[in-house]
Amino acid sequence: MFLVGAVPLLHPEVQTVEEMLDGWRNQQLCRNLDPDTIDARISLVRRFIEYTNEYPWSWTPAVVEEFFADLRSIKGRRQSTIRGYQNGLRLFCSYIADPDYGWDRVCEQRFGTHPAQVFFSWNTAAHVQDNEQDPEKRPFTKRELQDFFDHADDQVTAIARSGKKGWLPAFRDAVMFKVAYSYGLRFNELRHLQTVDFSRNPHAREFGNLGVVKIRYGKAKKGSPPKRRTVLTVFDWTPEIISDWVTHGQPYLDDGIDLFPSERGALVAERTLLRRFRRYCNDLELSAGLDL
């Protein structure tokens, strides 16, 4: 049980919620979960409390259904998003309803009631298939991909000739698009690349020091560190575009070893790259189903 002091509380409802969230945070940290995941779940609980105007020990299945009906019908959230929200809130309810943590006794003493699980199979979405992508989502055709890469390069030239700021980030993002395609990288894998991650492939000497890339920030399994993997260089143009960037672009953004730093020397935010990606797709009138 998360220890609660014996001193009378000035705002018992608010303070009890904060104690619950602190205890739940500690439980998840002990399970080795990612801090960003924990913060997102706690933020979700706060949103649910604000929406329902009810504290956790007063939640009912009815308020659950009202909240998610609003997310689906009015805000248009995706099915996978709904299921993720429901799972996070279900875990919180399991924590505060577990007698081992003692929140039932605390709430009975303070409020004359106790928390209970309000997320069940009959009022939550089931995960019935692994792939839940939108049917419109599809890969690029070769022609579309070439047009996209050409347009990204043209934008760098156009911005540079205009004398406006922004040609360097445009250059960086154009290279990021190509590297993501070359190695089949997820965005988080891409943004964490460093110059030291590349090395020779003795079976493909023509690529020089860029024959292999070691991915250190792959998608992690629950409670585990990021997964590592190694990807071979297969396109003869990949080393050329990376070398060009490392020589004529990366040093002007940062003097460190991050391959794709932001203008402030930090890692590039996903929304930054996706915003440019979507703008280029719109410029070329490409399908909305295309994605990185």
- Report the sheet-strand fraction: 5-15%
Number of DSSP helical runs: 11
- What is the mean predicted local confidence, pLDDT? 91
CATH A-level architecture of the largest domain: Orthogonal Bundle
How helix-rich are the residues, as a percent range? 40-55%
Specify the structural class.
mainly alpha
What's the CATH class label of the largest domain?
Mainly Alpha
Distance between the termini: 45 Å
CATH superfamily of the largest domain: Intergrase catalytic core
Order of helices and strands: HHHHHHHHEEEHHH
For the record, the count of structural domains works out to 2
- Silhouette: elongated
Largest sheet, in brief, is:
3 strands, antiparallel
Indicate the CATH topology of the largest domain: hpI Integrase, Chain A
For the secondary structure, the number of strands is 3
**Unreliable segments of 5+ consecutive residues:** none
Strand order of the largest sheet: 1-2-3
Radius of gyration: 25 Å
GO biological process, one term: DNA recombination
Protein name: Phage integrase family protein
InterPro entries: CB (IPR044068), DNA_brk_join_enz (IPR011010), Integrase-like_cat_sf (IPR013762), Integrase_catalytic (IPR002104), Integrase_recombinase_N (IPR010998)
Domain Tyr recombinase: 135-292
